[in-house]
Design brief:
ten-stranded mixed beta sheet; 2 domains; Spore Coat Polysaccharide Biosynthesis Protein SpsA, Chain A; globular; 8 helices; single chain; alpha/beta
């Protein structure tokens, strides 16, 4: 059985702030070879110590660089750690994967934001589908099965992910509303489950992108490589972004500058036009101003 790792990156938050932590712990108890890995991008020494101690109490794997590496670099650090862990298991005779095609140590990673809430139905469906997918490959003589799993995510504003296209003005029909097999979707990171072998073909995550648009960069790269076959699974997922409540003008401006840098870089990497970049950032700016006005209303 291939290993299954639930990965979440924290920044300046307590480990217990991970909304789906109870569900993750429960899933680990239900399925063998299922583990939680936390990468802590926090910079506060006292917080890092508390989170490390809490992770140890909960039996959770914990990594930290003592500074904020960004989301993409944190993911890549996790992959390096897990690659080594799989090699160590193989050399000790306890490998969870089979030899041959999986000689490098294939495994599944499940990405989660700290503010995502996953139902047990969705988590179980993802875990079962990873097992079923490999069995289907064996039964078909090695035909490649979809190596991407995702769910239908809702936020306070309505449907959020997956989308069939990425454009300036979204339409109701852009969102996937039924489980099934799809190609060419745009999914957010949180709730995405991806096979390690797929990420090897991409060379890992793009570390020039610090935080935002990493998910859409990944979707574009998968499409370029013809590896964009998704299995959309049932089960409730709620995503309430940390920026959903207006954090104050100074913090909002700082957050916008990070987004703007990453978005402009994403557009350059993926060949999006300058006009598209300008209009999308203008739209984002308008939303920020609108949210500020709303929170001024008594």
């Amino acid at each position: 059985m291939e290993s299954f790792y639930l990965i979440s990156v924290l920044y300046q938050k307590k480990l217990r702030a991970l909304r789906s932590l109870p569900q993750f712990i429960r899933l680990c108890g239900e399925y063998p070879e299922t583990e939680i890995l936390i990468f802590d991008n926090s910079e506060d020494a006292a917080l890092l110590t508390k989170n490390r101690e809490e992770a140890k109490r909960c039996g959770i794997s914990y990594l930290s660089a003592g500074r904020n590496l960004g989301l993409s670099a944190a993911y890549n650090r996790c992959l390096l750690e897990l690659d080594q862990r799989e090699k160590d298991r193989a050399s000790s005779g306890g490998a969870p994967f089979e030899k041959g095609e999986n000689a490098e140590g294939d495994y599944w990673i499940f990405l989660s934001d700290d503010d995502s809430l996953f139902s047990m139905e969705y988590l179980r469906n993802v875990r079962e589908s990873c097992l079923e997918g490999r069995e289907a490959e064996k039964a078909s003589g090695g035909e490649r099965f979809p190596e991407l799993r995702a769910g239908m995510v809702r936020s306070l504003r309505g449907p959020l992910s997956p989308k069939k296209s990425y454009r300036l003005f979204e339409r109701a029909g852009d969102f996937v509303r039924a489980p099934g097999h799809y190609r060419g979707l745009y999914c957010i990171n949180s709730g995405l489950c991806i096979c390690r072998s797929l990420l090897r073909e991409l060379g890992g995550f793009e570390e020039r992108i610090f935080l935002d648009m990493l998910d859409y960069w990944l979707m574009d790269r998968l499409r370029e490589k013809g590896l964009d076959r998704f299995w959309i699974l049932p089960g409730e997922i709620r995503q309430d972004f940390s920026g959903a409540s207006f954090p104050g003008r100074e913090r909002a401006e700082r957050r916008y500058r990070i987004y703007r840098r990453d978005f402009q870089l994403y557009c350059r990497i993926t060949g999006r036009s300058r006009l598209f970049s300008f209009l999308m950032l203008f739209k984002r700016r308008l939303r920020l101003s609108y949210d500020e006005i709303l929170h001024r209303v008594p």
